[in-house]
Amino acid sequence: MGPEMEVVESVSDLPVQDPPGEEFSAADLCWAKYASSEHQRDDVALIPYERMEAFIAGECNNPECPTRFHIERGRKRERGTLREVRSDDYLLYRMYWCSFGPENYGEGGTILPSRKYRLNTRNRAARPQSMRGCTCHFAIKRLYARPSLVLVIYHERRHVNKSGFICHGPLDRDAIGPGARRVPYVGSEIQQQTMSLIYLGVPEENILQTHMEGIHRYCGSDAKVDSLASQYVQKLGMIIKRSTHELDLDDQASIRMWVDRNKKSVFFYQDSTDTDAFVIGIQTEWQLQQMIRFGHQSLLASHCSFGVSKLKYPLHTLLVFDSRQQALPVAWIITRSVTKQDTLRWMKALTERIYSVDSTWRIGGFIIDDPASDLDPIREMFSCPILFSLWHIRRTWLKNVIKKCSNREVQQEIFMQLGKVVYSIWSEKNPMAGLEKMFQDFIDQTTFIQYFKSFWVPKLEMWIDTIRSLPLSSQELSGAIEGYHLKLKAKAYDDSQLDALQRVDWLVHKLTTELHSSYWLNLYADESGSFPEVKAEYIASTSWQRALQIPDNAVIFDDKEPFSAKVASQKDTSQMWTVWNPGSEFSLCDCSWSMQGNLCKHIIKVNMMCGPRKDFQPLLSFQSFQRVLLDLWQKPMDDSFSLDLSVAWVMQMQERIQKVTELATSEGIAQVSGRLPIQWANKKGRRVAAKRTSPLRVLPHSNGTVQKDLTPKKNRKRKRLSSFSG
């Protein structure tokens, strides 16, 4: 990239470069200057599209400035959308920025009105304090005319700040630790890994060994490097142990200070005033990446109202599901406001943040667990079907049945009757009549009956209407959400400072340090193969995954006892667990985990075995799915258009389900895509293949209305003829 660099006028004049090796960097390429209306004499190179990840990995492993590059923004277009194609037009555009920028959070803080002194804010132990305003960034373009090639455009190759000084790496004089100029700066991945191990209470010897293994990837192993790495781990551990959530005695001022320091992790903030409620939306850069990665064309779940009675402000969590269908928190919203206006504000801010990175991001469905949730903001911002999860009502009912009824047989009968009430929603029976019968049968259980009448009866109609009107999610998803709930509860309520529960800064500190680090390490261990014990614990963190480990022959059905099933213990073969009311979401097991109100692995395994058996009724989720299909089909026969439209919707849903099943059972996506037929568009000469239309575009909304296709249409309005010849 010197002064003798060649200048080209068209991307077509650039040679394709494919350096050998698994990884390569900018130093391995010959660069040229390219100027256009969009690019002002930028340095460019042309590489194969399949080597794009190898180039990015090579740039991350630069020994002078080891770093990670994140996607700052991105755009995408489909084939056939351009009439005139230039040589540098793109199918895919992404801008990658060094993760030590572009913001600079290491320059010091400001003096708040409630403080007389300036706090030391030069702690760079954890992100976002490690962001130093690095301006190094490049863009990639997958060429529209030649999709097999990528144009790399380097806007700034040096890892410097706006002042032109090196801001990280071994040449940075201000890096953490003594003698840091002689040691590569610790990258964000190694730093986050070390932090997570410290937060999880791993012994310092094990942390140091893991940290050194990461450091040795960037430099050789010698006594000096190992000594400095040991000092780094000790200093980071000391900083974490001494860190406090209480940045100011006033909680409101403390939160303002935290927001000011962590702007990159806050997507929405609304301070409490006379007219506005307090709302803070938190999403780290890693959470944003996981939301885009696992949320696209998949499910997004809402975990509502955590800590309503214990915390100062309840916590609302958005969850996605990874490749193992484990729930991952991708956004936290702390507020007591449930108004449509406030919900719409933070949802809009969240979606705009995602679209700024990937404008094509869409979710396949949104799952709620609270019938009081306002559905209009979800439909407006996400434009997707809405489902309902029963995990909350099942867990609450079971815990209170066990707590307020001492007799085991009474517990079984009451919980079974509550399940029958819910199952009768789609029948001709009145659910409230079944509830009244239960009150009469168990009139002697005064404690539970009084609790249920005072707490649940006034709002039971709302729950029934929601269950009847929305499709229900599966038991696997309910188990995943419950797994997150239990982990969140263990992290949030293990603090010895009882008064801290009424401080928002304490909750924010817990979420962004311990809980965030725990999930980061879990996913990292699962995907990288590191930390086998952490990976095994993560896989077994939900009852669904634990149920998959139980063999089928461990489940015993007895025709003489149709209302129960036996499950042999895997640890002690002589131990048998009894599951009452099998084949229902409202089953009850006598194991200790179920007796705490949780959905245990024995219940899930028994229900898996009951699915193919004809002597058990389908689960509620399948019954609601059948109801959706019947509602589409049951149209007046004399209304032929409505009937035809219903048939079209059912066929599209059937085709989509078949494709998902085929993909899940195949060896890879290439095997499925190779069998898809080519669809041709109405173009001149039939030379252009049209993009395949997603069935979601024409599926009905949750409220029964048809979603409009917002894709821009060509204006085919005929030109007006002012005169006729002849």
Give a verbal description of the structure.
With 726 residues, the protein is α+β, with helices and mostly antiparallel strands. Helix 2 crosses helix 4 (223-242) and helix 9 (391-404) runs antiparallel to helix 10. The chain has helices at residues 52-60, 188-199, 204-215, 223-242, 251-261, 285-295, 340-357, 375-382, 391-404, 408-423, 431-441, 446-455, 457-469, 475-492, 504-528, 532-539, 543-548, 601-610, 620-633, 640-665, 669-673; strands spanning 6-8, 32-34, 42-48, 69-76, 90-98, 137-143, 149-156, 266-270, 279-282, 299-306, 315-321, 327-335, 365-368, 386-388, 555-557, 564-568, 576-580, 588-589. It has a 7-stranded mixed beta sheet with strand order 1-2-3-7-6-5-4. Strands 8-9-12-11-10-13-14 form a 7-stranded mixed beta sheet, sandwiched between helices. The protein is built from 21 helices and 18 strands. The model is unreliable at 107-129, 176-184, 680-708 and 716-726 (pLDDT under 50). The radius of gyration is 29 Å and the shape is globular. It is 38% helix and 14% strand. It starts with 5 loop residues before the first strand and ends in a 53-residue tail after the last helix.
| Main sheet: strand order | 1-2-3-7-6-5-4
**Sequence stretches where pLDDT stays below 50 over 5 or more residues:** 107-129, 176-184, 680-708, 716-726
Q: Total number of helical segments? A: 21
For the largest beta-sheet, the strand count, sense and barrel status come to: 7 strands, mixed
Specify the overall morphology: globular
The percentage helix is 25-40%
Radius of gyration: 29 Å
Total beta-strand segments = 18
N-C termini distance: 68 Å
Indicate the structural class: alpha+beta
Portion in beta strands: 5-15%
Average pLDDT: 80
